[in-house]
Amino acid sequence: MDGQVLEKLYELYSREIYLYLYSLCRDPDTAEDLTQETFLRALLTLPKGHENMRAWLYRVARNLFFDLRRRKPELSLEESGELPAGEDEALERLVRDEQRRLLLRLIGTLERKKREVLVLQYYSGLGQKEIAALLGLSHENVRVLSLRARRELRKKLEENGYDFS
């Protein structure tokens, strides 16, 4: 693969591949390592003229995560946060960060396939057909998993004091 093509792919997709991997492993260092490994594999093995490089990168990233998981059973979640200088901004950011942490934690409690579908759909912006191809499921199965995952997540959020009425 041409170095310029890889550089362009990295610019376009590294952030979303990182976020996808982070959603799977919940460890920033592991996600960063796996992101780098994904693009290294792209450099070494992506065939020229491959039509959907984005989907291929997700497949490589997913496979790397599950290979690592087989070797290392449980990965932990590390959380950190910085507060900005202004008190109002700090409070608003603290609330938003807490909401994001809760959402991530609750997404992490979903069954693996439901969690993966939601992350790919909302954080990575993939369509249901792309997700179906990536996960080896039917489009209808992905649609149902997404619907059930969102319902389950909404119920968990309501149990944590969020009102959707």
Features:
single chain; 165 residues; mainly alpha; Rna Polymerase Sigma Factor, Chain: A; Arc Repressor Mutant, subunit A; 2 domains; 7 helices
Overall description:
- With 165 residues, this protein is mainly α.
- The chain has 2 domains: 3-71, Orthogonal Bundle (Rna Polymerase Sigma Factor, Chain: A), CATH 1.10.1740.10; 87-159, Winged helix-like DNA-binding domain superfamily/Winged helix DNA-binding domain (Arc Repressor Mutant, subunit A).
- The chain has 7 helices and no strands.
- The protein has helices spanning 3-25, 28-45, 53-71, 87-108, 112-123, 128-135, 139-159.
- Helix 5 (112-123) packs across helix 7.
- The protein is globular.
- It starts with a helix and ends in a 6-residue tail after the last helix.
- The relative contact order is 0.11.
Share of β-strand residues: under 5%
Structural class: mainly alpha
Mean pLDDT value:
78
SS element count, helices: 7
Radius of gyration: 17 Å
Q: Supply the CATH architecture of the largest domain.
A: Orthogonal Bundle
Q: Using the coordinates above, name the CATH class of the largest domain.
A: Mainly Alpha
Runs in which pLDDT lies below 50 for 5 or more consecutive residues are 74-85
**Domain module count:** 2
Q: Could you estimate the helical fraction of the residues in percent?
A: over 70%
Sum up the overall morphology in one term: globular
Q: Could you give me the name of the CATH homologous superfamily of the largest domain?
A: Winged helix-like DNA-binding domain superfamily/Winged helix DNA-binding domain
Number of strands: 0
CATH-assigned fold name of the largest domain = Arc Repressor Mutant, subunit A
